């Protein structure tokens, strides 16, 4: 007869100890996993910006200048935006910089689906370019952000979202930052009447790279293309409201696909948590989560923003991609942002 031995199972206490150890290990691993995911998302985002920078250069090689932030006919709507009834009557809003570079970001079919060449808008005010607005373009989306699938519902609705903006520069306070660089104009920094940016001398120029009806030539940038921000990240405002236009790729206004006045007044550094900092029509004020805005304001000013840890990514005029930390000084951010300030800066 073969003797049998009884098997001893786990006691309840032993089982609880094992579960506790597993929970501790998971707790230790989760931050590491999140860091790996964010690193991958940041790399993907940087690659998106690199491709957009190359596309802007290809446009420059074809046309002779960078694309304008937006084409706008004279009349109402330059700051009131496409939600204004007068604007719809005049057809004032034109295609933005992303619409114009579609053929250079492997979106030739989308570009060709538009009935007319968007550049002809200034001549005849044709709005056919808007037919592209609802198309989701993966290369325009940062993996770290949210709200990709919630369209902007203003201006006729169903505008697809995006996370990248051109740099219109400009100075806000005594002037409207968005309008201050129209046609390539370069305003000068003043301290009277609004908070100064420490370290920026009075009368320092503040010209942008891609502005209303104008884009710079790369070989005539006074500060050099490698020293001036061409593109920057922005955050999507869909989690605050479907009518918050921030992060809308085909809409050529501050906060939607443009940064402007991002180093002046109450909007001085990337990812600022200042109250009321972005001036964008329809925006919701949420400063504690880095999305401050002045409700009721027309389009005037918008800051570079992202969900990356401690900073935002930018593409310089030479196409290189850099990470700008939130801790950058207001003056250094100013000198990086303006094409003609004449002041050298050091990387933060």
The count of domains is 1
From the alpha-carbon coordinates, what is the Rg to the nearest angstrom? 24 Å
Mean pLDDT: 87
Secondary-structure element pattern, one letter each: HEHEHHHEHEEEEEEH
Q: Which band does the percent of strand residues land in?
A: 5-15%
Order the strands across the largest sheet as they lie in space: 7-3-6-8-9
Question: What is the β-strand count?
Answer: 9
Any low-confidence stretches, pLDDT <50, length ≥5?
A: 83-91
Structural class: alpha+beta
Helix amount? 10-25%
Terminal residue distance: 82 Å
The major β-sheet equals: 5 strands, mixed
Number of helices: 7
Q: How are the secondary structure elements laid out?
A:
Elements: H1 12-63, E1 70-72, H2 85-90, E2 93-96, H3 97-101, H4 108-112, H5 121-124, E3 164-169, H6 177-180, E4 210-211, E5 214-215, E6 229-233, E7 258-260, E8 311-316, E9 321-325, H7 330-337
Parallel strand pairs: 3-7
Antiparallel strand pairs: 1-2, 3-6, 4-5, 6-8, 8-9
Description:
The chain has one domain. Helix content is 24%, strand content 10%. The protein contains 7 helices and 9 strands, in the order H-E-H-E-H-H-H-E-H-E-E-E-E-E-E-H. The protein has a 5-stranded mixed β-sheet with strand order 7-3-6-8-9, covered by helices on one side. A two-stranded antiparallel sheet has the order 1-2. Strands 4-5 form a two-stranded antiparallel ribbon. The termini are far apart.
């Amino acid at each position: 007869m073969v003797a049998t031995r009884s098997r001893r199972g786990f006691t309840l206490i032993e089982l609880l100890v094992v579960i506790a150890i597993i929970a501790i290990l998971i707790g230790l691993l989760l931050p590491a996993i999140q860091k790996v995911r964010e690193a991958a998302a940041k790399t993907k985002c940087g690659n998106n910006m690199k491709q957009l920078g190359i596309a802007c250069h290809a446009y420059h090689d074809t046309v002779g200048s960078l694309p304008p932030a937006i084409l706008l006919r004279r009349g109402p709507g330059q700051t009131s935006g496409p939600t204004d009834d007068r604007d719809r009557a005049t057809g004032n809003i034109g295609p933005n910089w992303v619409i114009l570079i579609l053929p250079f970001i492997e979106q030739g079919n989308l570009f060709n689906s538009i009935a007319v060449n968007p550049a002809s808008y200034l001549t005849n005010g044709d709005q056919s370019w808007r037919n592209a607005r609802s198309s989701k373009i993966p290369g325009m989306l940062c993996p770290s952000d949210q709200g990709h699938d919630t369209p902007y519902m203003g201006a006729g609705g169903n505008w697809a979202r995006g996370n990248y903006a051109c740099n219109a520069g400009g100075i806000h306070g005594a002037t409207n930052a968005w309008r201050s660089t129209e046609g390539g104009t370069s305003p000068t920094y003043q301290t009277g009447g609004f908070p100064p940016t420490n370290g920026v001398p009075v009368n320092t120029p503040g010209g942008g790279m891609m502005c209303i009806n104008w884009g710079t030539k790369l070989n005539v940038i006074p500060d050099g293309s490698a020293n001036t921000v061409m593109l920057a990240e922005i955050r999507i405002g869909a989690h605050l409201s479907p009518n918050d236009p921030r992060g809308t790729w085909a809409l050529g206004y501050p906060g939607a696909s443009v940064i402007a006045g991002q180093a002046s007044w109450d909007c001085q550094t990337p990812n600022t948590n200042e109250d009321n900092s972005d001036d964008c029509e329809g925006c919701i004020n949420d400063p504690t989560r880095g999305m401050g805005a002045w409700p009721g304001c027309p389009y005037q000013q918008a800051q570079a923003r992202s969900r990356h840890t401690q900073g935002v990514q930018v593409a310089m005029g030479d196409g290189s991609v850099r990470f700008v930390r939130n801790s950058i000084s207001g003056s250094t951010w100013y000198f990086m942002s303006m094409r003609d300030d004449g002041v050298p800066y050091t990387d933060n």
